[in-house]
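Q: What does the predicted 3D structure of Short-chain dehydrogenase look like?
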Amino acid sequence: MTGKTAIITGANSGLGLETAKTFVRLGARVILAVRDLDKGQAAEQEIREEFPKAPIEVMKLDLSDLESVQAFAETFSSRFNSLDLLINNAGVMTPPYAKTKDGFELQFGSNHLGHFALTGLLLPLLIHTENSRVVTLSSLAHRNAAIDFDNLDGSKGYKAMKFYGQSKLANLMFATELDKRLKQHGLSTLSIACHPGISSTNLFKIGGREMPRIFKGLMNRYLQPATMGALPTVYAATASSLTGGEYIGPDGKGQRRGYPTLEKPDPAVNDEAVRQKLWEVSEKLTGVTFDFNK
C-alpha cells in the first residue's frame, strides 16, 4: 500500500483504529476522519508509538451533519489529488431515539446518509485514481431488515435495533448499487461491502452509555477482538482477487468470528427496485448526486 492514500471514518477506536494501524503498517498514508478531534489525536498518538514517522493525520468529520461532510470533502479535495481507499467504517448502534442536525433518524442519517454523501462528494477523486476502492461496512444485523420508506425518520415509531438493521441494510444496498453504476460507466473504482462478525468494540453500549468493565471483560472473552473484526475490511481493501460487488465477512460459525471469506448477503439486497429507490431518496435527502463522468 506504499504511496496510497486512505480515508477511514470513525478511525479513533475499535475497527477503524485497527484498520488504520494495518494500513500504516502496509505503507499507506491514512486520514483519520473523526467526529471528536481529541479522540482522533489520541488515536494518532497511539499509532505513532509504533510507527513514529507514519504519514497519518486527523481531520474533522461528523457524519450526522451534512455541513461537516461537505466541509471535509472540500478540504480533502483541495489538498489531495488522489484517493485510493475510502473506508466507510463509522457507525452508531442502537441509541435512544434521536435525530441528526439535518433532521434524519440518527442511525440512518449517520450510518447510511452521511457515508452516501461523503462518497458522492469524493467520487471525482476516486474515479480519477486508478483502481481505487470504496469499502462500506455493513453488519449481520442487515439480515431480516427492511427499508421502511414511510418511516425513515422514526416519527411513526422507533425501535433501536430495527432501525440499526435498516441502516446496515442500506449500507449494503448502497455498496452493491454503487458498484453496479461504476461498472456501467466503465470505471476502475470498485465498491465492496464487508462486516466484522460480532466484535468487541465501543459500539456496544447500554442505554447509550459505556458498559461496566465486567461486561467488557465478558465480551472480550466471547466475541472476537477488534484486530480480528478489522480483517474483512483490510481484505476488502487489498485483495487483488476482488472485482467489486462482493460481501466479505468472517468464515466461522454464523459468520460471527474468523478469517475473511466471501459471503452471500440477505436476498433483500438483490431487490433492484428497492436499491434504486433508496439511491434516489438518498440523493434527495442529502442533496448529493453522483457524477460518474471522468
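A (community wiki): The C-alpha cells above were generated from the sequence. The chain has nine helices and ten strands. The longest helix spans residues 160-184.
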